[in-house]
Design the sequence.
């Protein structure tokens, strides 16, 4: 069995309880374009993706072109709101206090956004310099592509099968599985709606937890089920 040598965290919706903040900004901006969408619907459709993906999808669905500066405006408004309101998921610091594995973050979000929200929650210094952004990492495709996960494994000089990923979105789970990694789904943030755990398992998560405190023992349990030495 492969030894677990790296735990990879998603950020928004996993370490940071920020998906509803992002959805509020995105829905406000869509409304300015004449598109009405509830926050719950937005999270169901787009949580774990990127503003660029949202823009492209809604342009195709609405048949209208968004302004060239649309994505930049979304980013500015979101960063301002995150600096005021972002908070960590309950138990994030306590988990990191006891987690006895190398760790990093792999996110679709840009590094500026990640630094703002993680700094507000006093988590930035607990991960840097191992905060990897598919948006700001060269030519990597964003989740559900596996690129950012494979980059993290390469940086830590470990094999994909030696990595455990914690993800709250189906796109993130699919990306990690495509990279050849094992995945724990997370449903403990405030944006999660009933039925979300099923979506994560359908995407490839081996199990799902609702508390960050359960992550260490879940990794141990998965080793007994088949896969990692601990």
Sequence:
């Amino acid at each position: 069995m492969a030894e677990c040598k790296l735990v990879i965290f998603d950020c928004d919706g996993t370490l940071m309880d920020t998906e509803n903040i992002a959805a509020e900004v995105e829905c406000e901006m869509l409304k300015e374009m004449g598109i009405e969408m509830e926050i719950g619907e937005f999270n169901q459709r787009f949580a774990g993706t990127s503003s660029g993906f949202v823009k492209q999808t809604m342009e195709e669905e609405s048949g209208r072109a968004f302004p060239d500066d649309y994505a930049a405006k979304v980013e500015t408004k979101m960063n301002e709101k995150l600096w005021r309101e972002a908070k960590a998921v309950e138990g994030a610091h306590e988990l990191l206090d006891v987690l006895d594995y190398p760790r990093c973050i792999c996110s679709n979000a840009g590094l500026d956004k990640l630094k703002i929200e993680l700094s507000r929650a006093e988590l930035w210094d607990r991960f840097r310099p191992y905060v990897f952004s598919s948006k700001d990492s060269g030519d990597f495709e964003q989740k559900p592509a596996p690129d950012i996960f494979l980059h993290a494994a390469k940086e830590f000089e470990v094999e994909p099968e030696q990595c455990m990923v914690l993800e709250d979105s189906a796109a993130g789970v699919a990306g990690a599985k495509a990279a050849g990694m094992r995945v724990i789904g997370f449903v403990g943030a405030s944006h999660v709606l009933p039925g979300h755990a099923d979506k994560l398992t359908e995407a490839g998560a081996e199990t799902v937890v609702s508390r960050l405190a359960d992550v260490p023992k879940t990794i141990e349990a998965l080793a007994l089920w088949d896969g990692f030495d601990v």
About this structure: The radius of gyration is 17 Å.
